[in-house]
Amino acid sequence: MQKHALIAAGGKGTRMKSPLPKQFVELDGKPVLLHSLDAFFQYDPTLHITVVLSRELHNQWKSICLEHDCQIDHQLVDGGPTRFHSVKNGLKHIPNDSLVAIHDAVRPLISEKLIGRLYDFAQKFGSAIPVIESPDSLRMVDHALSSPLPRQQVRLVQTPQCFHASLLKRAYNTGYKERFTDDASVLEEMGERLYLIEGEKENLKITTMTDLFAAEGILNAGKQQTETL
Question: Which CATH number does the domain housing residue 163 bear?
Answer without folding.
Answer: 3.90.550.10
